[in-house]
Specification:
About 70% of the residues lie in helices and about 15% in strands. It is an alpha+beta fold. The protein folds into two domains: about 5-35, no CATH class; about 45-135. The chain has a two-stranded antiparallel sheet with strand order 1-2. Helix 4 crosses helix 6 (about 110-135). The longest helix has 29 residues, at about 55-80. It is elongated, with a radius of gyration of 27 Å. The model has no long low-confidence stretch (mean pLDDT about 80).
């Protein structure tokens, strides 16, 4: 934090006194705010992944595995109880269709769409693997 000492002359009943006062620059105040940190997260994430293909591939693979895990969790929890299977299937299909239309309909493939599409691929892979386990 950038601070400086400013001297301030104060008039008191006993005469003039010299008082030191800390002056904080505007940039130091602005950078220490929590709201600024939160609002700059998307830009900092874009800089983190900019022009770094191995980093994008690693996070894409992590997201595929997270989608695989999430789909197995949904499949096992709803399949074991046999309650609301149709609702779970409808929500999963709607999620996959929305992700596909957003990703393939976009003019520019941004990072958020890439991550969501990787998650969707993991979900589809898990459901195919579960179907093969049940059918074989």
């Amino acid at each position: 934090m950038y601070t400086s000492q400013a001297r301030l002359v104060v008039v008191t009943p006993h005469g003039l006194r010299l008082r030191r006062q800390r002056v904080v620059s505007a940039s130091a105040r602005r950078n220490s705010r929590l709201a600024t940190r939160i609002t700059t997260i998307p830009r900092r994430i874009e800089f983190y992944f900019a022009d770094n293909l191995p980093r994008r591939a690693l996070w894409g693979a992590i997201t595929v595995f997270a989608g695989f895990y999430a789909a197995n969790t949904v499949s096992l929890s709803f399949g074991a109880l046999a309650i609301n299977d149709v609702v779970a299937a409808a929500v999963t299909v709607a999620f996959c269709e929305l992700c596909s239309s957003a990703y393939y309909g976009a003019e520019r493939k941004i990072l958020k769409l890439l991550i969501v599409n990787c998650f969707k691929l993991g979900v589809i892979a898990a459901l195919v693997a579960d179907a093969l386990k049940l059918g074989g």
